[in-house]
Amino acid sequence: DKGNHRHFMQKEIYEQPVVVAQTLKAYLQRMDDRVSLPIPDFDLSAIRRVTIVACGTSYYAGMVAKYWFEQFARVPVDIDVASEFRYRAPVMEDGGLMIVISQSGETADTLAALRHAREEGQKIAAVVNVPTSTMAREADLLLPTNAGPEIGVASTKAFTCQLAVLAAFAANLARAKGRLDAKAEKELVRHLAEAPAAINGALAYDEAIEAMAHHIVPARDVLYLGRGTDYPLALEGALKLKEISYIHAEGYAAGEMKHGPIALIDELVPVIVIAPSGPLFEKTVSNMQEVQARGGKVVLISDYDGVQAAGEGCLATITMPKVHPLIAPMVYAVPVQLLAYHVAVLKGTDVDQPRNLAKSVTVE
Ligand code: F6R
Q1: What pairs with residue 141 in β-bridges?
Q2: Integer Rg of the chain from CA
Q3: Local structure of residue 262 (DSSP, 8 states)
Q4: Which positions are catalytic residues (predicted)?
């Protein structure tokens, strides 16, 4: 049931504040300011290495999480798409944890990677949205996302819930490794608990994003740029746009622009720049200005400070609430999803059932 929404995708985008809150409930003990796991006595202290494997949007959630595991827990992270992981000769040592991320819990390549890692003696954690799925059953540590059924083929609410789980899991791992004192843990819990309200704040810009979508509709190609955790978001933005609007889109690490893709820039290629204010902002803005100097039309997605500092000369700006960097990926996912959604609606494509795509990819 779509309720009063036009499409399941729109409904699921709007459900995000509620389902992220619902998901976090299993991982945050707000009363005593601690993060926790659904299996409280699962021992993480011996984990020396993390391998993340997933496909598509779930893979991009994993890419964001890599920054968190490394930053908070100082544990090295290897990440790959499942279809590549299977066919290389990945080195899996003792003390390794594999994390598979999957909405459906049935994606064939991800499941095969899980089974391969198990044979190699890895512990398996599964961030999965369908609790009865094969991956959920085969994991040592089930880390459920509580997004509820996702009907739209383009993944939205499952992605933000995956991010919520992975952030909380990274904090758990950091504590188990002795890298998170009680004060820092309390801070993290406080920031994570703010995510649902901040996502709600991002949804308030829906109309502005819809108005902006008109500029994207005529484009043949669109580029998305971001740095740090905004780099996977750029990839996710490009994937969302191409899969439902059929506009060719690519995401790049902002600093890679000058190593090739900048040759594509002209006034016909809109460039979506995802850049909250913060330590990486200046760097990304200088990449953005290189685009503008070549006639590129930029849409800047930032917060008030970022838009004030760099919004001039942009085709459009989208102002997100100012949030802590930990929850920024969950918040900035919203404009990226809404932009793809509105472009697709304006183009008249089948938003919930895009051509050639299946919700669950159970063949290789
Ligand atoms: C993108 C999308 C796909 C899935 C991918 C993995 O919007 O829906 O890229 O993310 O097929 O699916 P799961 O997460 O079920 O393993």
Answers
A1: 125
A2: 20
A3: G
A4: 359
User: What are the structure tokens assigned to 6, written together?
Assistant: 């036009």
Q: What tens digit of pLDDT does each residue of 214-270 get?
A: 999 999 999 999 999 999 999 999 999 999 999 999 999 999 999 999 999 999 999
Strands 28-29 and 34-35: antiparallel
Backbone angles phi, psi at 238, to 5 degrees: -65, -40
Tokens of 206: 């829906």
The whole-number average pLDDT for the span 24-48 is 92
- Report CA(56)–ligand 1 centroid distance (Å): 5
- Residue 155 is which amino acid? S
Q: Which of 165, 63, 210, 50 is nearest to 117 (CA)?
A: 50
Short-list 197, 143, 139, 131, CA closest to 172 = 143
The reply to whether ligand 1 has any atom less than 6 angstroms from the CB of 337 is no
Rounded-to-integer distance, Cα 238 and Cα 225, Å: 9
Query: DSSP code of 344?
Result: H
pLDDT in tens, 37-93: 988 889 999 999 999 999 999 999 999 999 999 999 999 999 999 999 989 999 999
d(CA 163, CA 15): 15
224/230 Cα distance (integer angstroms):
10
| Nearest-atom index, ligand 1, CA of 104 | 15
Contact 97, 76 (CB under 8 A): no
- With a 6 Å cutoff on the Cβ, whether 150 touches ligand 1 is no
Any ligand 1 atom below 6 A from CB of 154: yes
Half-sphere exposure of 35 (CA within 13 A, CB side): 29
| Burial class of residue 364 (count of CB atoms within 10 Å of its CB; 0-12, 13-18, 19+) | exposed
Atom 9 of ligand 1, residue of closest alpha carbon: 56
